[in-house]
Request: fold
Amino acid sequence: MYVYNRIEFSSSRKRRFKYEEGFAGHVWSYGETVLINNIKDSSLFKGQFAPKHEYGSILGIPIKWMKKW
Reply:
């Protein structure tokens, strides 16, 4: 079994995604956990959103933040 784990706080703080843009934007707009079993078959990973690393599956979990007023 091969595992690829990419959690980098510094890079995530610098990245920006538009609503419904790429995988992160899709997870944001969907609002629920998203599992893609084979990214080669997904339209979310084409063109400028093609992966730069070799991995087959991806799991996206939206983090909901609520401001306290």
Observations:
- The beta strands are 34-36, 58-60.
- Helices lie at 9-14, 22-30.
- The chain has a mean pLDDT of 79.
- The radius of gyration is 13 Å.
